[in-house]
Amino acid sequence: QVQLVESGVGLVQPVGSLKLSCVASGSIFSVNAMGWYGQAPGKERELVATTTGFSTKYVDSVKGRFTISRDNTKNTVYLQMNSLKPEDTAVYYCNAKIQPMTTRFSEFGYWGQGTQVTVSS
Description:
Elements: E1 3-7, E2 11-12, E3 18-25, E4 28-39, E5 46-51, E6 56-58, E7 66-71, E8 76-81, E9 90-100, E10 108-111, E11 115-119
Parallel strand pairs: 2-11
Antiparallel strand pairs: 1-3, 3-8, 4-5, 4-9, 5-6, 7-8, 9-10, 9-11
């Protein structure tokens, strides 16, 4: 089955940095868009950054601080998080639009398990 697995260190002090990664695996025909969502306590999930591999988009609050990148060979997406602030604290979920081999003409959305990122002094 297709799945997304996240990894990365999730505890950092303000102004610090960390990097999250997410690997798509399984029987895949095509990995299309990949991105990251953040869900702060008591709030809905919010799109933080997305990439098609050729273009990127960011929510205004992270522009200039976060960088999303993608390794198509490894079906992996990364989120480099710099100059972290306490308000960045959230559970970060990897998301990907994937066409599985079994249904190659249909695109489905998949979620990673979520990574708790806590920015605190």
